[in-house]
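Dear U.,

Please find below the material for section 3 of the report. The protein was modelled together with flavin-adenine dinucleotide; I have listed the sequence and SMILES used, followed by the predicted complex structure.
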Amino acid sequence: MADVDVLVVGAGPVGLTAAAELRRHGVECRIVDALPAPQHYAKAVGIQPRTMEVWDSMGLIREALDEAGPLFGQLAFVDGKPGPRMELRLPPEIPYAFAALPQYTTERLLTEHLARFGTTVERETALHAVEQHPDRVEATARSRTGAGGPRTRWRSPAARRHRRLRAPLTDARPGVRRRSGTAPGGRPAVLRWRRS
Ligand SMILES: Cc1cc2nc3c(=O)[nH]c(=O)nc-3n(C[C@H](O)[C@H](O)[C@H](O)COP(=O)(O)OP(=O)(O)OC[C@H]3O[C@@H](n4cnc5c(N)ncnc54)[C@H](O)[C@@H]3O)c2cc1C
């Protein structure tokens, strides 16, 4: 059984973003997906300005802007006839506009970004079970050979790590900056904690 700090299940936009941000902040993780390869069709296409801001903070905005097209509005068709129309105009002070980027491109950019931290998606690996113990969480995944095939088990010593993390969080003061990892290119990644 392998120990891992965080196991991310699913290499869609959410899992890839979570894994990349964990790695950027110095947390070890592994990411698995049940599918043998990314999907070739897009569900999400419209990218919100706030997503662009988040990608900016992640160090991904240049790649995203290079691939994205502008999104000025939406026209819905109902029974083949043009229906409601929506304009996506924003005040000029908003730093990014709406953009169009198919989900498979978003996933490719996030996968490439994650690979810069030395983490790749472990494919054909489906989470099968999670067991909560007082001092750890155990996850079992099935790999490509199917139900009768080999299983992989991960152990996350959650309770022990929480004790380690709780002390500095308790001490956190507004605006406290802590260096906790390294971004691609050697730039320091800094976590800011605020007491709520
Ligand atoms: C038709 C449609 C249009 C949409 N348009 C937009 C849009 O324009 N803009 C927008 O922001 N959002 C849009 N969305 C929503 C957007 O697609 C979702 O919010 C987004 O895909 C969620 O990302 P996710 O990573 O959580 O999940 P998903 O993209 O569904 O990815 C989940 C991943 O987890 C894997 N997985 C699942 N179970 C397991 C398991 N047990 N073990 C291992 N791997 C597993 C799957 O194989 C998959 O790769 C749209 C959705 C649909 C259906």
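For the text of the report, you could mention the following: The chain has a mean pLDDT of 81.

Regards,
Y.
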